[in-house]
Request: fold
Amino acid sequence: MMNSILMDELVSSPESKTLEFKRDLSSPKPLLKTLVAFANTAGGRLVIGVDDARQIIGVSNPLDEEERLCNLIADCIEPRFVPNVELLTVEGKTLLMVEVFVSGNRPHWLKSEGSDAGVYVRLGSTSRQADAALIGELRRSAEGIAFDEMPMPDLALDDLDLDAAQQLFSGMRVLDQQALRTLKLITLYQGHWVPTKGAVLLFGKERTLHFSDAWVQCGRFIGTDKAQIFDHIDIREHLPTAVDSIMLFLKKHAMRGADFSTVRRKDIWSIPLVLLREAVINALVHADYSQRGAPIRVSFFDDRIEIESPGILLPGMTVEDMRQGVSRIRNHVIARVFSELNLIEQWGSGIRRIFREAEELGLPEPQIIEIGMRLRVVVYLAEAQRLVRTTEQVSEQVTEQVARLLVILQNGALGAREAMNTLGLKHRPTFLANYLKPALDAGLIEMTQPESPKSPTQKYRLANSP
Reply:
């Protein structure tokens, strides 16, 4: 039974993954969708008798409405579940509150829509229809089955790159058949040892043939939206080695100066590498690889870095749970291998470390957002670390073309041809006139061989670089 103080706090709270308000029972279907979504996702409370302006209007004939509600739940939802239904008095008016717990019999669905179309999950403060892949995930999680432990009966050990796997485990263990069984990289299926889905995701020779979205897309964007992309790379290597490749891409585009006008002073700074590495590993380990539609995405903007992976939080989990260090493993095989390779320090510590690291560095608090059927971690950069990209924000001598040249030279000296290739340019006169000459004239870059300006081995670097 909830006391009046707690109820007042509840009514003043915003709608969320675990809280929703309804005015009355006049339109029961949206209400039933919400209850189904609560039972399938993380539980929640539905309060009836509060309008859209969050005014408490109460419920007329509360005893009759309570009976009607209980009948609707019993008649319209499969499999059946019995939530807690309470009558509560707030500001002298009676409210109906339905408390639903995450169900061990999920997925639940609306009878009228059937088991394929009537399954709903909770995303933020909305209830969304689940597709076949998500329904399968709900069912597996209720049965305690990990997707990556399932067999791939049409494949054999030859379909795994065991040489690459053994190289990663060098000095730790020999990947003989016993080790492959222990790590659940292989499993017994109809009397034969076959690779698991986790093994193929980790070390499959043709991983994307079987899991078309099991790769990573990295992009560096100009500004704070995706209107203009500066650089991108697709990473399709084995998941454990993908970590370093993703971090290398982020380091490549980490600007060292607070803005382009300070490049000559070499004000060194870096993106929060420890924090970002944790977020990258979390995405690779906990992605729902049964989903189809888009790969893991790492997007580098001027003010933030977003790391987005397929799949919503596991049933029973909320963002607040993650922040408190509550951990549930979606991919047991992938997590075990990452742990054995010392890519994961301690279960459940990754998200907490992300928030702690941000606080210690004085960065804005990261965000964890369920958006669509994906999970996004947003890491904000400190104001002094944000890249200044547009001509309005930089000194008059630094055009957008010069700014792009300065960015690529942050990682070391380049020859003209190397710089053109990195910038995606093919027309040498354009490069010389719009990029190289203005940067040299402004004193922002210098030649590595100033005594031989036309040397075929000539390179260019940031001014005053060691």
Summary: Residues 4-128 form a domain with the Methyltransferase, Cobalt-precorrin-4 Transmethylase; Domain 2 fold (CATH 3.30.950.30).
